## 1
Amino acid sequence: MLVASQLGCGVGEASDLLSSRLRPTAKGNHWGDIRARLELAINRVCDLARVEETVGGCDSDDSDWGPGYDGGEELTKAVRKELASVLRDLMQHGLCQRYAPSSLVPILGCFQRPSKVPAVSGKEEVQRHAWDLILHYYEIMDGSSYVKQPQRSLANSFRLDPVGSAPANLKQSLLTRISSIVSTHSPYKRSQDAHFKAFVCAGLNERKLAAWLRLIYRRPRLIEENYLPWSYASNTGFDDCLKSLERVKEFEFHLPEDLAIRPFRHMRDAF
């Protein structure tokens, strides 16, 4: 069933994207193949999510993924290894160090940065990770000041709204979730990939992945300071990608957001 669906309209859409986007440009400057792979990854996640809704999930007691996980292992792998990976690649298309960083997200003070930072006017650019862009958004929105507000500190730990406050808006939920991922993953020195996969899983669980990314890519300063002129983001504003990602909102996900740190937590609890 999954194979049949992927050989249908999903592949056609991806093929159309591939043929229409590829141009005779400098090597590495096209995005058509990445965009087509993203469409296929979205199709696969939607197919698996639809199956999970039909069969009612799996027995978490017999799963190696730990108690409390309601989704299938195959769906989780598809999200983390396929969807998150190709979304990362698309976000990293033309993503380079083009600004002089200040104190980048002073939550715990332990973030991976490029080994050398080129001058903005220089020809040499440093490839950066998609998670860097998310952290830059957190920095320019002064996310650390927001999450450190006393009335939010305890509430954020339990994902509750502070007493007497209105429900968190989209920007607040994004800043809070970035802070939460950093605070849980950084103490175990998890990679940028691990942080980003947790972000994607959280976005799907809350049905806000496309909306969160739209907030990030609607900041002109982020595009100007982080992307080269030939990048996918500079040329499209990420619009068609976000439109495709909206398709996953119809499904209810229960993806584990802590897979990268779960073994370390278990070791800590054992002692």
Note: The mean pLDDT is 75.
## 2
Amino acid sequence: MAQQLLRATSILVASTLFGQSAAFGTSTHCARATAFASAASLANSFIPVDRRNRVGANVLKMSSSSSESVKRVLVPIGDGSEEIETTCITDTLTRFGASVTVASVKPDGELVCTMSRGIKFLADATIADAVNEEWDYIVCPGGVPGAKALSACEPLMELMKKQNKLNKRYAAICAAPALVLSPHGLADDAATCYPAPDFIAALKSHSDDDVVVSGNMVTSKGPGTSLKFALQLGEELYGKEKADEIAEQMLVKR
């Protein structure tokens, strides 16, 4: 109920601000950016710090109480995470039927993250809410500042090491294979990443393919390969037939 009220209020505030901006002659793109950025910040302010964990816990409780056939996916983000990649991952896997939880790794527990191009994302939960849960997939978006924030988040990295130890699936895209997986011994097999020399050098076994599947790990290059990456994650969870079906609906050639 709290999340529904929060989102409804955000939309109302955004619509109001957009109308006011347009009335004063502000350009459409500026009006939208200002409206939704303000709405995201205001929405997060409605959740007192001491209640944010309870909100996140409720989201996770609803997620874990779903049918056992529903796959649970964790997408951790921080300030500077890449928004195209984050959106492609969450949107595409939701189309498959997965229950996707976006978790903020910000140390102060704030749910609003300012992404790499300034767009504000409202996470569903904090990483503290997520670490004691079981996940079918943990998927890390890129963006250099965001990837560094994920790598520096000790609870997340412990969770990912546990995921790997149990031979459960995890994935990373763009800067994340080099900055999140590799420093923590999670990219020992063939992997790809954003084609920057420093990132390539950080991988033990670099591949130039757009998407690389190595056992329980999937990696990809960046924003332009995000849909292909997300569809491959869906295939790992639901099979090729379902992935081809979703790809056709999205007008994506595989």
Note: The radius of gyration is 18 Å.
## 3
Amino acid sequence: ETAPHVSSSSLRVSTDFFTLLLPNNPTMSIATFETSMGTFKAELYTDKMPITCGNFIDLANSGFYDGIHFHRVIPNFMNQFGCPHAKDPNSPRAGTGGPSGGTTFQSCDGKTISRTSDGGIPDELTERITNDVGTLSMANTGQPQSGGSQFFINVAHNSFLDWFDRSTPSAHPVFGKVTEGVDLVKKISQVPTRSDNPIQPIKMIKVRVA
């Protein structure tokens, strides 16, 4: 006897239909960053970091990051971005802001997550992904649930920032990695600065995840 034939096409259709029903469709994993210096793209680790990625996708696709400037860039270290105060490139408050407190978003595994009163999200210190060149990592103050909208892109292998590296108390979870435009990211880190802030402002025109 031959085994029953299962149509792969019908299986695929039903699977696609199911994923469309999930919040923040898990197939959305490529972030496109359009900046005043050019465009780069990154893969988001939606399966390994569902909370952190869900927060990022919510902010990116709602336009939260549009018009914000990189407020801190350091060659051979990293580029930091995502503070709403940095819509003014010279704001003295740049680096202190985040999402509105008490707001909610959908994690990539379908759960509803509430941000703290300060806009912070749960610390997703679960996956041993190192802060290597090109990785996206959450910025925080060192206090629990202090990560919100700010993140940085490593331009060196900064293993001392890993939550599982005990050489320092730093704990910055990685949630994605640049797949196109790493040279641009490094170029951004090398621009002339004043107190680590680019003298010629570098604007994020928009970030979208698809």
Note: The first strand starts at residue 30 and ends at 35.
## 4
Amino acid sequence: MDSVEDTKGNNGERGELIITNLRLLWWSHKSRRTNLSVGYNAIIGINIRSASSRLRGATQALYVLTKFNGSRFEFIFTNLVKNSPRLFTTIQAVYRAYDTTKLYRDLKLRGAIIQDKDLKLLPHEQTYNKVNGVWNLSSDQGNLGTFFITNVRLVWHANLAENFNVSIPYLQIKSIRIRDSKFGPALVIETTQRSGGYILGFRVDPQEKMRDIFKEINSLWQVFSVNPIFGVDFTMEDKPQAIQQVTVHNQPDNVEIIDQDEESTDVFVAYYADGVKNQDREPVYCADLGLAIESLRDGITLENLWNVL
């Protein structure tokens, strides 16, 4: 959007607002050094209220409330195009898509993801395996629960308390392996630093069954890494055509030669280098020009040469 004002920090300056799938970017038309970037993960609220703009006066503006490192920040954006709701509708729609798909991307502890001992599936999510009798080794005694293996994530919940659960998206998995623990061989899942750097251990008996589960999870993780599912459906509007569709190939001109002046053709030939000519022809005096010129070839007259011009 080419005409958006940062009313909070740069009131009176026209700028450009870029809306991506991860953040908002604004910079001033006067100087690109005056800019800001707001990640959707830091946003805690979006609403529309009145604001005082130096370029539009009292008008409706978009308020974006954020929280970062324990501090709260407020951003106010004013669309300088009159009667255009595009600023409000676009940002709210994109942020809603981001906010409602966090379970595809973020590790979740103790969430409302289990109902009646069954997993609440996300859009485009499919359950590939449900494993009973899985021990979570996070405590000294261990907790007995159930494992759900889907095409998007791994989910474990305790059998005695559904709200004691963990959802681990493949996007946040750093490594999967089997290693020894004080409970014996365990399936160990390490998450990325962005998700907290957790090391989660699970035990399944017998060991052959745990190895099969390890192979299944590892295979689904590899498939997800190639074709990730983010849970966002979208349609392209005014999609630009591919370069192959707009490329125009060179075509010969459709020209029909109606008449050809043989004398004129001979005149053009006179300007080419003479392949059998080893020396200049004898100079002769031309009364029409009042100059000495090289004698002309046979069949060529001075009038033919002037007709070329």
Note: Residues 264-273 have pLDDT under 50 and may be disordered.
